[in-house]
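Exportin 5 [Megachile rotundata], Lepeophtheirus salmonis. Tokens?
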Amino acid sequence: MSHEDVSSACLALAQAAELVTDPKTSREDRLRAYQECESFKDRSPIAAECGFALASDTSKSLVVRICGLKILEDSIKSRWNDFNPQVKLSLKENLMNMIRSSMGDVLSEPIHIKDGISRCIVEIIKREWPQHWPTLLAELNGCCVSEIGTEISLFVILRLVEDIAVLQNLEQTQRRKEIYTALTQQLGDIFAFLMSLLERHYKAYLESTEILARKRQVKVCSAALGTFNAFVEWVPVSYVMANDKYLIRCLCHLLMDESLQLNAGECLLNIVSIKCVKNQDRLQFLSFFETDMITQLFSATEAAEQKSSSDDVHYVFLKKMVLILVELGNQLCGLWSIIEKHTQRPSNFDVYLNAILFFTRHPSLTVNFYVNELWIKFFRHTEILKDDIFKDFVPKWAEIVLKKTVKLGYRNEGFSILDFETEEEYGTFFGKYRIIILEGVKLVCCNYSPTLVYDHIEEWLSSLLRSQILNESLYLQIEAVSLILDPVLSKSNLSPILARALHLLKSILEYETSDPILSSNLLSCVSASFVLVAHDSTLLPIIMNKIFSCITFTERGTSNGHQISQVVKTLRRHGCSLLVKIATKFASTLHPIFDHLKDTIATLRETDKINKMEFSCLVEALVLVSNEFKNYSIQANFVENVSAFPFEEFKSLQENLSSAETFVEYIGLTKVNDVKVDKLAQDPYYVNRSKISFCTTFLLSVCRRTKVPSDINECHSGGFILHEEPCGSGSFNVRNPAASVANAALPLFLSLARVINSLWTPENISKYGYSRTLEMIDTEKLTVTGSTNVDSSTGLKEKKTSSRDKMKSFIYETYENIFHFLYECCSSFGSEFYRLPGLTEALKSYLFAGIHNVPDYRLRCLVKTFMKSFINKCSKSSFSDVLGPILLDFCPYMLTRLTERWKYIESIVISDDDAVNDNEKDSKEVLEDVFLRQLTRDYLNAVKVLFMSGNGNDVVVNPTTEDQSALSELGKLVLDYDTLRECLLVTLLRALVWNDSLSSVRACNLIKVILPYVILSKKLNEDGARQIMISILSAFHALGQHEMNNIALTQLAIQAYEWMRSGYPSVLSVLSQVPGCNQEDLKRFDDRIVVAINGKDVGKVSDRVKKDMFKKIINQFVGKDKAQLFKKEVIIKNLPSFIPPKIRHKNLSLDETETNDISLTTLFNNGTK
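Tokens:
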């Protein structure tokens, strides 16, 4: 076309680009302008010419030039194959000329313009180099006549390497391999080219005196370092270490220049992070420990450390340098065994450890975290830990790092504001930081010396106990000491420190204070030191008195634990929890004083010195200790006696659990509000709710903690075996001492479940208007969305809570307790529970009544906690009477519910109703989607247990290793029920296409388990086989774009086709109807399957071939990501095969190899005489 046509088109495009980016443009005009640009780019034969004209015109605005570059790049991508050779050559030459002479100043030209030009050239390179553009590197070198030309040339190499070697985002495999081969063949020339540019411009930078001139050279040097950085990630180490490690020496030198040190540090970090396979390559990293190099590293790091407190840029560089030192340590861990064999320890090892120790002292938590991770690796390395120099540094590390466990707070940590945006982020990180330190302490105690850390802890804690000043610093320090004491005393050989540790424990127990916060922290120290009681039993009553003094702690002006502050509540709760912890870990130690504990707790309750929930917690500890009797009669009598009062109180509430009306009135569900207050003592319904909470929590704790001995001989001697024959496979049915209490309380729990289910009925919600109170609690929302709510404060302040929030928590906790109680009935009581008269009808009438109104976030507990255990612990003998009838009602209901819910979620996704897209509604829909996914996964897990577990609650004498992926006997019973089989099979087939990839994979795995049995037992008709194949293929269209799903579906599809091909010919016709299916490919695939069925398959090779053939059949039908749906296909044609030139070494003549006289002439002269 004529020049006038190009000019007019450019003018129109410029106007359209300005309209698109102008904020004042109306929506319709912006859309019209955008469509005009896209239409021109796709259809106009002069699109590339116009794009170049706009991009090269420096008088145009940046928006227009960017638009031109985008048009040019897209034209090259989509229409390069249609260009004639002249147009291709013209584009290449014009772009290279523009780099050489048509660009602005390197400082004023925006980075996105330079990057856009480089990407256009890279797209041409992908289609032309090296076969049709062998002079590329020479032309790029020719463009380096100015700073901006050099920078763009470096960008071209950088983007090419990123696309080909680093990110590997070039989809055409052959072209990517050819370009990669060409790059590797010319690595020597490329590295020499890059180094020459870096040297030239760094020299110019040093010689320049003008500020702008120096900045120009810095720009180019930074681009060169960035390009080096892309190469060192994947090139062989020999190129990095070439010429006596010249590149590394240059980088170390540049670390001292503030303008280039960050780029140099990034490149150096990538170099020291290289994972080498050959030992010879790895040994070259020892050169970093040479004096000249390590001096430069330390000098740069020290300079950055001095300026980091006032400058965040220097702090970023400091962290980079610390990472370099840490990676060198990681390399050293892998090299140490090689060093031991071939040479001595690395030079300057003591200097290096001093530097690491220096940064262990640094006030930055992030810097500390990096170096402490390295110390952990050193402590785990047995050879390094034996080194004499390293041994000298372990005590120094311990002295420094112990004080680092004190949590100073987000605002008090010097660098935390630079590293973390919120207190929650700081709190999460500090938790990880502490774990690293405690892991190091544990390793030092186990592998080095048990006394080293204890010496510091003893001195530290003793000084704190002598302190007369009570402040927050003291609290935080004792808290840190308690955390360190645990790994020191639990992992150490106590012999060297036993006497001193016992003395320190006595000092803690003798310390008297009226401060509840300090008492709580000291109680943590007692907890960590309880292991010492095994060596001195006289301490046990003293410790118990200390714990009970904390449990009964009261402040002045209060009586019997009522109306107490939050800090005192925390202390009392801590004491109760500690007793449970000790009873869990050291039950045998507490067993001799069981009667004393029981009498003490009873006395405290009778005198009203502890409240009901504290009493429940203490009884939980008693039950744990009572398990040590290992006598059914004694344990059963104790459990029955201790549970009498809570059971009677629970039974007295039965009238209030009879209907939703009485329950709502009893708990005050309609009397709540959003006013946040400090205390809810004025709430008249609080007492009623606390009664329900106490009864459910108490009975749940008793049932959960009462255990049967794990040894079969102890079961026989203690009377735990039911007087029946063994139940088969070397297993016995046992009885639990708490079974009678649980069986008596079961109707009450079921009544409570039914009345809570009824709260969600539309009639009750409409009548009482408490819908907001039944919503999920904030903790559930935070958990399901992956958010954190870490309180970085000490947690000692009173928190204000509204009565509505309290009511939400009550309903949530009560409902959870119900299903955890039922879980314990299944898992702990086994056959006693399943043989209860009328159990099936009670569950149907009470537990499952009204569950169709219960929201997904509450129904999860029923499925995940109860149903999974109910199925897993049901024996085959109880299936027909108990589990079978329940499943016949529950499974069809879940199929209907999940199907309707997924349809609802899909309708929301495709809805375009902008009027309702407010933030609150969007958040609600997101939560609904997430909870539906979780409910689906939980239900599929329960189905998995149904088909692959389910062995009853038995004590196994001779455990057998069974195939966990095989269909269980219980699963076979389920599949023999026609209704259940069809329902569950339909559920799994629908789960294949529901929009949750994880659920689809789980359904795939379950279908592979049950389908062979269904086929072999002749329980599948022709229509069913057809529907199975259709569902599997539909799943490819719905979720086949996900690699995990594609793999699982491919395996399932091929196996299902093999299993059904001979008996159900319709599966072939289903496969033939796949859109885009080539009938010849299908015939070859079918023939291969028939060969496999007839037993003529050739093994694993055939499996791979079958997968490739099947993928070819369904390739066009497989779903795509939404981002890829309307993406234009980019076709890069393969060029003539690229054969790397072979370097032939010339065979030199003798005259060329020998320059000195070797007496040949003399030899012949002597022969002629």
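The chain has 56 helices and four strands.
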